[in-house]
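Before any further analysis, we paired sequence with C-alpha cells, yielding the entry below:
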Amino acid sequence: MEDNLSVRYICEEYNLRIYAALSKKVLQEMITIHNTTPHATIAFGRTLNAALLLASSSIKPHSNDTLSINISCSGPLKEIVVQVDGKGNVRGYVGNPTVDVELQSDTLNISKALGAGIITVTRDLGLREPYKSVSPIIYGDIARDIAYYLLESEQIPSALLLAVNCNKEGAITRSGGILIQTFPNTPGQVIDVIESKLQSGFSLDKKLEEEKLIKDIIEELIGKEIKELGSLPIQHRCRCTKELLATILESVETQELEDMIQKDHGAHITCVFCRKEYVFTEEELQKIVVKKEKVH
C-alpha cells in the first residue's frame, strides 16, 4: 500500500489542482517519540497531514524552503507544531502529549481538546523574512479551520480532507489527506459539487480503510480523471544539532550560564521536536561564556 508520500495532481477538465498525503509510518514514528495519547495523536496527525498538503501546494519540491503550522490554543492540548521542508522532511511536537489524562473522556472530542486559539502558518522561502499569516480557530475542526484560513488569508477556495485513525493500542492504522484547490478560471460550481459529495457521506478514512489507491479515491470524489504531476517521499527528520543548541545557549543570560556551571556542573538540553538529549559539559559552557564576553 502507498505510504509516506506526498503527491501533486491536476484535473484538466475541472481546472483543479489537487494534493495528497499519506503518512501512516511517519506519524507512527512521531507519536512513538512523543508518547501521545489518543486525542493528541489524532490532532497531531491531522495537523501533520495539513502541513504536508500546504507545503506541497506552496513550497518548491526538493528545496530547503519550509512551511510550519503552529496551533496555539486555550484547551488542554496547549499547542501543536509541525514543520515540513521541500525535501519531504517533517518534524513536530504537541504541547500536552498526554492530554487524555486531563480530559478523562471516553469519546473523541478534538474541539474540546483545542478550545479557542489561533493558527499561524509560516513559510520560509529563503527571503529576508519568513511570511506569516494568522487565522482564528473557529470550528475546533482542524480540516475546516485550515480550509477557512486558505479562503480568508490566501483567497483560495479549497476542499480539505484529513483522516487519522488508531487502534485500541494507540498504533496508527490510517493517516492521510487530500487538498483540492481552484484556479482563477475554475468553474464556480465545482467546489460546491465536491462539498456536496463530502456532506453526503464521502469518507476519506473509510476509503483508506478499504486500501484504495489515493488517485482512485480522488477520482471517485471529483468524478473526473486526474494526472499526476510529481511525488515526494516524506520522512521524519529533525534538524537539531549540538552546534545549533550552542548558538541558542549564547542568547542565555551570562549569570544563568554561570549557574549551570557552578550549580549543575553542566547542562542537559532536550530537543522539543525529536526528544534527543544533548549534554554540555562545564568546559563547553565556559567556552560559551567567554565567547559572549568577547562579543560584548
In short: The chain has eleven helices and 13 strands. Residues 86 and 190 are 29 Å apart (CA to CA).
